């Protein structure tokens, strides 16, 4: 199988001053979003809190530490992988493995980032190759809170983020890629590391990541609106390459050899609990976006289930 050739850091041109300024602004936006998310959703009386992966979560842990509440030392923080565990330990907090959680116990809250979030709070995750453990933690939380910068705030998934990350058993890569092409993915590929001779990236479960590009994903409301306008045949089941986000997530997960799909869709934790489920909500109840002007926008689910954008 031919894998794409990565570009090494050594071959990249030096970062310009303007690029460095933009990067600094993005990091400031992440910090602002993290601080507000922690202010509104962190509870120092909590027993278990999930901590996700990625650069944004560094600022979440930083914001928790800045509270200087002694009760924080009694909280057990559940990481979504090796990297997030290091962030927890570096901050002097107590970590706990996911499989050490007592049976039928929910995390009070889980904080994590996302690669893209649509207007219904569906998410793409897996850019850091931690999607399986991220989904374990998110679905075991009473509420899942996303923290991101303004680039991740989009109307539909796959608007700017190019692919859906999928964790795949290495033996099944060839058949999974073939199945993804059948579903309409133009050119799915195995993700490689920065050092080409090291081969494909391995997850914490020792699996590969397949990145699958698809056209922008529909919401169910898009299908309803099309029907009202007299558009016939739009079902979001892959016809003409058009998929409704939950339908595609279900189809990919059903492929033999797929461990986890980087689409976080369906119910959130509050909605799952309202239906009598102990766990299972994948979507965040709110997503905090650090904006270019220094403000924080919040896309959140209201009590009636509708999603609004608070600025």
From TrEMBL:
GO terms for biological process: D-ribose metabolic process; pentose-phosphate shunt, non-oxidative branch. Its EC number is 5.3.1.6. It catalyses: aldehydo-D-ribose 5-phosphate = D-ribulose 5-phosphate. Pathway: Carbohydrate degradation; pentose phosphate pathway; D-ribose 5-phosphate from D-ribulose 5-phosphate (non-oxidative stage): step 1/1. It comes from the Eukaryota. Keywords: Isomerase. InterPro entries: NagB/RpiA_transferase-like (IPR037171), Ribose5P_isomerase_type_A (IPR004788). It holds the Pfam family Rib_5-P_isom_A. This is Ribose-5-phosphate isomerase. One of its GO terms (cellular component) is cytoplasm. Transmembrane segments: none annotated. PANTHER family: RIBOSE-5-PHOSPHATE ISOMERASE. Belongs to the ribose 5-phosphate isomerase family. The keyword Chloroplast does not apply. GO terms for molecular function: ribose-5-phosphate isomerase activity.
């Amino acid at each position: 199988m031919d894998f794409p050739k990565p570009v090494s850091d050594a071959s990249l041109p030096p970062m310009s001053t303007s690029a460095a300024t933009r990067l600094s602004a993005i990091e400031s936006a992440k910090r602002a979003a993290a601080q507000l998310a922690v202010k509104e959703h962190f509870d120092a009386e909590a027993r278990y809190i999930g901590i996700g992966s990625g650069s944004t979560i560094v600022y979440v842990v930083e914001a928790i530490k800045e509270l200087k509440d002694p009760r924080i030392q009694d909280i057990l923080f559940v990481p979504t992988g090796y990297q997030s565990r290091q962030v927890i330990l570096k901050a002097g907090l107590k970590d706990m493995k996911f499989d050490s959680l007592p049976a039928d116990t929910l995390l009070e809250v889980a904080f994590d980032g996302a690669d893209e979030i649509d207007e219904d709070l569906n998410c793409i995750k897996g850019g850091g190759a931690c999607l399986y453990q991220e989904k374990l933690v998110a679905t075991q939380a009473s509420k899942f809170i996303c923290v991101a910068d303004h680039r991740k705030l989009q109307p539909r998934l796959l608007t700017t983020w190019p692919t859906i990350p999928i964790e795949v058993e290495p033996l099944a890569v060839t058949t999974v890629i073939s199945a993804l092409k059948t579903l309409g993915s133009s050119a799915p590929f195995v993700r490689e590391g920065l050092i080409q001779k090291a081969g494909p990236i391995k997850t914490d479960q020792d699996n590969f990541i397949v990145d699958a590009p698809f056209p922008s994903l529909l919401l169910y409301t898009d299908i309803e609106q099309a029907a009202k306008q007299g558009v016939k045949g739009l079902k979001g089941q892959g016809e003409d390459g058009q998929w409704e986000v939950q339908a595609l997530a279900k189809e990919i997960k059903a492929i033999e050899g797929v461990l986890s799909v980087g689409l976080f869709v369906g119910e959130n934790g509050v909605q799952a609990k309202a239906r009598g489920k102990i766990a299972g909500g994948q979507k965040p109840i709110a997503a905090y976006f650090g904006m270019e002007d220094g403000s924080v926008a919040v896309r959140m689910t209201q009590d009636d289930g509708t999603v609004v954008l608070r600025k």
